[in-house]
């Protein structure tokens, strides 16, 4: 039987312009022997803490608004990334769009319309990316992100943490236990865009791995639709290994209409970090 870990605060020192402040590289495959938990700081001690120190603590009800803001902004960033940058991951779609552009020329014999065709296609991609991702966001904000306490803090094997810098919540991450597979799923990781590049995401990821180790799970899994290479490098630096990939992933809220399939594609990648042999 797994049990939730006691409330604790993990202190991580973050230096302002240091891009890898948290120790751990690709060479460090498994290094998740957890340090002893430290007691929460009292107000007198908190005054002496430097402003470049990040604290990762468990979610509290008063964090709800900031947590939802960080999650919302992080998901909304994926609209242009999916619409435009994501196209480079879809060679078949590139070929199809090129074919449609050529067909436009042969059917209209208009150079102007042919030159406008790629712009129309990109506009349609942005429209459908926004539509699908907003539907997904609406679904999330009305399920687990609507009541974090009920979804993550109360169930056994799950937890939610926030990263706090200078009294402000700047990052979030969740762990959801799957008893049937003896794994923990890393979910909802996001860092405020103003505080990225300081090692906060890596510290949040390590917190989930420590939690899994303390509760005797065999592994940690995650699935991501992130387009940016930096996100995938982060997971690999934590020790995760890619286990699968889908080019035809269906997000919650998708209708799968012909136009949506034509103008919205997203790659879903699965990762796993094996903590111990079962």
UniProtKB/TrEMBL annotation:
MF (Gene Ontology): L-aspartate N-acetyltransferase activity
Task: Tell me its EC number(s), please.
Answer: 2.3.1.17
Keywords from UniProt, A to Z, are: Acyltransferase, Cytoplasm, Endoplasmic reticulum, Membrane, Microsome, Mitochondrion, Transferase, Transmembrane, Transmembrane helix
TM regions (residue ranges): 95-121
Membrane topology, record value:
Single-pass membrane protein
Belongs to which family?
Belongs to the NAT8 family.
Identification of the protein by name: N-acetylaspartate synthetase
Instruction: Give the originating organism.
Output: Amphilophus citrinellus
